[in-house]
Amino acid sequence: MFSKKTAIMLYVDDVAKEREFWSAIGFQVSPSTEMMGFESFDMSPQEGSDLTFTVYAKDFIRQVSPEVVDMAPSVLFETSDIDALQARVAEVTDTVSPVNQEPFPNFNFANPSDHYFAVKGV
Fold it and tell me: What is the pLDDT of residue 5?
């Protein structure tokens, strides 16, 4: 049986930049760990979340699982205050869209590795 806890692996160009970015927009970021000489870290949208992202350097993934290095997840976050979250993300990056109302309140943004994420207002 699968457990309730879920992790998504993100493969990035610069682990330190990613750590700084996600921390700045409010994610709970764990201390970095090292595997085979490469930095990695876990993060979650909020403390106690059942969802965790584990961030790995693409160079590390090329060594251990080269067949998946170019795969990128399509991730949709939810928020009860979409305007405040969009403003917070806009303070950190210029790759954030305005809040759109159709088909539901939403915006998207890119991380430093140019992966796009969507946010839905609930």
Answer: 78
